[in-house]
Design brief:
globular; about 110 residues; 4 helices; mainly alpha
C-alpha cells in the first residue's frame, strides 16, 4: 500500500465572484472579435503601470479594479459604451446594493 499525500482543495483562481465575471466578460469579448488580445494586454499593462507607481498591486481587488478600468476604457474608446453610460450604470448598481436588505438579491430598478 502506498502512502497518498494529503490532498487539499486547490486554491480558487479568483478570490471574488466579480473577479471571475469581469475576466469572463473580457474573454467573451475577445472570442466574439470585439477586442484584440494583444491590444487588450497592452492597455492593461499601461493601467497596471499607472496604478503600480503608487503602490504594489496585490492581485486581488486592486488588480481586478485595474482590469475593470481597462475594460471600461476600451469599451468607451470603441464607442461600445460611452463613459457616462458606464458611470450611470455603476451608480445604479451602487444605489441598488446600498438599498437592498442584507441577504436579498440585488436588482436594478427598471427605468422608464
Amino acid at each position: 500500500m502506498t502512502n497518498c499525500p494529503n490532498l487539499s482543495a486547490p486554491e480558487p483562481v479568483f478570490s471574488e465572484p466579480w473577479h471571475a465575471q469581469v475576466f469572463a466578460v473580457t474573454v467573451a469579448l475577445n472570442e466574439a472579435g470585439r477586442l484584440d488580445w494583444p491590444d487588450w494586454a497592452s492597455m492593461f499593462s499601461r493601467t497596471l503601470k499607472q496604478h503600480g507607481l503608487e503602490r504594489e498591486l496585490d492581485g486581488g481587488d486592486d488588480y481586478f479594479n485595474a482590469w475593470l478600468e481597462t475594460l471600461e476604457n476600451l469599451l468607451a474608446d470603441q464607442g461600445t459604451a460611452a463613459s457616462d453610460e458606464i458611470s450611470n450604470l455603476q451608480s445604479a448598481w451602487e444605489e441598488a446594493y446600498l438599498t437592498t436588505p442584507h441577504g436579498q438579491p440585488v436588482h436594478l430598478r427598471q427605468s422608464g
